[in-house]
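Design request, tokens follow.
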């Protein structure tokens, strides 16, 4: 009498996917945390440095002041005489509108203060002087 034994199925090789997925997620988190998402606008200025600088996240009206003291709104130069009217239109009836002044570090302080004064007169509820974090 012939006895046939059952054949056991062979074990198949499988790639462990869990550690691979863990590594991919760790790399994704690493690149998300180390990527700088800040987009700088077109006027080339060097901001003053401050140790207590904090990132600005809310929507604002930004006024750029270059080293010569010229004011720019949305990459378009605006004279100080017309700055009041431009800001008045942009602010409208919003009482708590934030206006950020991004002045070059080489600009004379008096010019930056004049622009902040014009913004306050135009109805800006809050004013902010932009800086970059000191390394």
């Amino acid at each position: 009498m012939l006895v046939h034994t059952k054949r056991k199925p062979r074990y198949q090789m499988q790639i462990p996917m869990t550690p691979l997925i863990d590594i991919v997620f760790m790399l994704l988190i690493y690149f998300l945390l180390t990527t700088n998402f800040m987009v700088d606008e077109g006027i080339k200025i060097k901001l003053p440095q401050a140790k207590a600088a904090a990132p600005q996240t809310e929507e604002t009206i930004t006024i750029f002041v270059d080293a010569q003291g010229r004011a720019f709104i949305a990459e378009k130069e605006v004279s100080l005489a017309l700055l009041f009217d431009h800001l008045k239109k942009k602010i409208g009836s919003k009482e708590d509108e934030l206006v950020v002044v991004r002045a070059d570090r080489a600009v004379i302080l008096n010019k930056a203060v004049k622009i902040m004064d014009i913004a306050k007169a135009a109805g800006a509820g809050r004013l902010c002087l932009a800086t970059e974090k000191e390394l």
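Comment from the thread starter after seeing the answer: thanks! The CA atoms of residues 57 and 131 lie 14 Å apart.
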